[in-house]
Design goal:
Number of strands: 17
Strand order of the largest sheet: 2-10-9-8-7-3-6
Bound molecules: D-malate
CATH topology of the largest domain: Aspartate Aminotransferase, domain 2
Helix content: 25-40%
Radius of gyration: 21 Å
CATH class of the largest domain: Alpha Beta
Structural class: alpha/beta
CATH superfamily of the largest domain: Type I PLP-dependent aspartate aminotransferase-like (Major domain)
Largest sheet: 7 strands, mixed
Strand content: 15-25%
Number of helices: 12
CATH architecture of the largest domain: 3-Layer(aba) Sandwich
Amino acid sequence: MSYINENFLKLQDSYLFSTIAKKVQKFTEENPDKKVIKLGIGDVTRPIIPECIKAMHKAVDEMGTQEGFRGYGPEQGYDFLRKAIVENDYKKRGINVEVDEIFISDGAKCDCGNIVDIFAKNNRVAITDPVYPVYIDTNVMSGRSGKFNKEKEIYENIVYLPVTSENNFKPELPREDVDLIYLCFPNNPTGTVLNKTDLKKWVNYAKEHRAVILYDSAYESFIGEKDVPHSIYEIDGAKDVAIEFRSFSKTAGFTGLRCGYVVIPKSVNGYTEKEEKVSLNKLWNRRTCTKFNGVSYVTQRAAEAIYTQEGQKQIKENIRYYMENAKIIKQGLEEAGFTVYGGINSPYVWLKVPDGISSWEFFDKLLQEVNVVGTPGSGFGPHGEGYFRLTAFGTYENTKEAIERIKNWNIR
Ligand code: MLT
């Protein structure tokens, strides 16, 4: 008999974005004449920049020659890309990260999900609420949660840290001891940010409690305001307590191509039951060598091309395009009378749904009455109830049209 991992039975029925996709598909089948505009999942619409395409063509041609052919690459990623990351994403910001502290992967979702492998089951996990569902689901799958409490809509044994307008979207430090802390800033889904003083509190907490911060900065390239940290390593002491996840998905349109990376400084430690220190970099390297054969050479050459002068110019233009959409959404919703957050340092706009209806009811109304798709806040956790997320990753034309429809909408 094959026994299953029963932790999977604790999970809620379906992954948020799959539920949304199913609802939208049903609506589209029943209403084939309606033009549905999707501002739900944060998937990009701009094509991959010419500089990356050029690099991929070159890499493909190389692979067809005896001298240029490459078989298995280093599991951790090619040094040409790791070095480009060290120089451009870190050194230029005055942060010292070493090449062997960077691990190239097929995306931040996989890294955020897989990282749980190197931590013991009995770690107490803290997540902000609302939250990107991957952090919580992967901890449930690996047995770090209790049952799902249907009434409270939370998993037992997980520490939820509310992030709402009441606390200005700044999570408070946990009152109890926690060991693993997930932070994502600019935040998905709320689009809000923390400043250095806010982040310093978390680094201090982690030091005091010998905890590890799992810092997702997938959206850092959308930061528009000065003084907003792009990396947790801008905070003194963070290199002893934090792992950072980065993605090329939103930055360079790699949602289909797949490439990201995780930074694990050699100074970040976990502990054995006997309280002996173990380098997490070493553990992750060990895991990577066994479970991963690296991202394709062609993809890594494409990622490297982002860091050329021309590549930087081209991706900045795409980011400007999306942030213009964010502005259209934010201003348009405000004109329509909504209270709106985010959208300044992030491609996500987080709006308060009108009193008296739930996030999912708002989702259904928006889809049925104006044919626009967004993401209900409660899908990201109980403190997302009463909110709704729209993404700026649509085309300019669709974004404008969606906002015009919402402005003219007589919500019933
Ligand atoms: C989102 O919409 O929250 C993200 O696009 C999902 C993801 O990056 O996996």
